[in-house]
């Protein structure tokens, strides 16, 4: 199995430290808002990775944190007249509800920064004692970047280049512009924790380093997150953990690509953050998972409405073929082989290439012809039964999914199913009377409403035209 290791900027053979065991940590959400598509892509990606590693026989210990305190959470809580911790509790419940809806399995550990303050203080104290960090007169503590010679290795940046790009803020009293905060002092009346440096709150980077050390140990197998976290967040985590532990923080660094919406980067300044809950009003959760996994996890992914429409159409096609397969293999022997499953593991063993597998499946489906190669049909269904729990797609009964999507479109098109049936009957009668002009008129009328008719030997069925 090979994975792209961002640390070495190449694909490498995946060999965890302990045989059959994988320790994985992924930076989780700061709970100052609801999950958007960027969060969804990350949790779906690492859920797929965890599930695939489990399928391969690894005992995966997966931890992902919640940053449950920051300035925005504090201000939002003030407005609601509740404590920041109460607000965080509510948010986490909302977030987990969204992840449940899109079938994301929960990590084994979901640590919250406010529960790790003593460990963070120990970590920071250690870094000061070892000479890697310093406190200032006002009670801040900074990591001294120039003391760690490996700085920039993860993000492939040179310290001199970084110096030119860093803006020096006037309020900062750090020794060097590149130094970053491990602990920030707060005023006596602000939310904070007591520490050897006075009242304050931990910096963002130190929480992940501390929680990884406390829960998983000095060196983990996989550290994950979105590409936007490589610098400075992961670079800083790597620096402080390496200095504290005198050991590498992670063997493999894996980062998912970013999201655009209709070609534009998703960001606060563009005000184009799309919330997962808003997508789920319009689309089935499997459509969202499909839209993510039909692309390789490292690619930049456009998640405008068109990408969901296309995903819905493709998934509808897949389910229709699955339905045909199920009908065709009824009453036949159950002879099968692992060829289709092997195709899946081949794709996934090559840096979790779910995109390649879905494309291969698409091409296989398009060549099924008369659905009479029963061994192949059985082998496909054997593979799908395993794949559905790893990718989180193809989990519906085919009829149920098809029915659901058809009903959704009927509602959108404002067409009544009984009306379609009555028109089909009228057309049948017209054909029996050899009134082909009327029969064609009826077909065209339905088509103008968005409904297409499909004639087979013994009956006429209808479908949604847009889905073809
Ligand atoms: Zn982190």
Bin the helical content.
40-55%
Question: What is the CA-CA span between the terminal residues?
Answer: 37 Å
* Biggest beta sheet attributes: 4 strands, parallel
Shape: elongated
Bound molecules: zinc ion
CATH-derived architecture of the largest domain: 3-Layer(aba) Sandwich
What's the total count of β strands?
A: 15
Catalogue the unreliable spans. none
Give an overview of the whole structure.
- The strands form five sheets. This protein has a four-stranded parallel beta sheet with strand order 4-3-9-10, with helices on one face. It has a four-stranded antiparallel beta sheet with strand order 5-6-7-8.
- It is built from 16 helices and 15 strands.
- It has three domains: 2-265, HUPs (Rossmann fold, 3-Layer(aba) Sandwich); 305-397, Four Helix Bundle (Hemerythrin (Met), subunit A), CATH 1.20.120; 415-467.
- With 468 residues, it is α/β, with parallel strands linked by helices.
- The radius of gyration is 27 Å and the shape is elongated.
- The structure holds zinc ion.
- Zinc ion is lined by residues 27, 208, 233, 237.
Topology:
Elements: E1 2-5, E2 10-13, E3 21-26, H1 37-55, E4 59-64, H2 71-80, H3 84-101, H4 117-129, E5 133-135, E6 141-143, H5 159-165, E7 180-185, E8 200-202, H6 204-215, E9 220-226, H7 230-245, E10 250-256, E11 259-261, E12 264-265, H8 276-282, H9 285-293, E13 301-302, H10 305-328, H11 339-349, H12 354-366, H13 374-391, H14 398-413, H15 417-432, H16 436-448, E14 451-455, E15 460-464
Parallel strand pairs: 3-4, 3-9, 9-10, 11-13
Antiparallel strand pairs: 1-2, 5-6, 6-7, 7-8, 11-12, 14-15
Helix pairs in contact: 2-3, 4-6, 6-7, 9-10, 10-13, 10-14, 11-12, 11-13, 15-16
The chain binds zinc ion.
